[in-house]
Amino acid sequence: MQAPTVLIISDEVDFSRRITARWQMERNVPSFTLLSGELWPRFAVDVFDVAIVGDLRRDVLSVVLEPLHSTSQPVFCVCQDAATTQLVHERWPRIIILRPSEHWLETLVLAAAEAVHRARAESRARTSENTCAMLERQATLGRYMLEMRHNLNNALTSVLGNSDLLLLEPGSFSAQTRAQIETIRNMTLRIHEIMQRFSSLEKEMNVVAQQAEQDSGKSYAAAAAGH
Hints:
By secondary structure, the chain is an alpha/beta fold. It has helices at 13-23, 58-69, 82-91, 104-147, 149-167, 175-226, and strands at 5-9, 31-35, 50-54, 75-78, 96-98.
């Protein structure tokens, strides 16, 4: 999986530098996108895992926080004073607020790293759920086809038998009609071959499932014997 992206928006270069330098001390280091408050509207980044905002002029604060607040990604805002803290809390309640303190940088990096980890875990979970749902739909279709196989084979046998009977009467139909009947017969045989492949596939899947159960039982027995 691609490394997560941390978006840092600040008018102070030192603010961004301190965060990236501190994050370099962690075992898992993300990629960083650094923007100033003025550049943000022109180069808005659509894809990021977590955003950190701090040391922005008051007049650009809403320009930056409003679109970030509308996303689903976690957003942290380091507020320098009580007035800014209250403003952010009232207008953008989803944003996580931090106040500068002795250990604010440590807290920010750890909290943001955890937010990235959780966001990635949720993304993987959603992907797994979608994959499971798709596989379940395919399995349902497969089970239906296997269940209907007997009825379909009966219908194919009827079509094939009647087409053979019609072809046994050489003078009853024109050449064009006989050609059409032969086409029906040939297509019926092709469908029958496909159904036979389904039967073979079902047998192979049953063998694999039985082998997996046997291997699982042996592993469990070996583990129990080890204890």
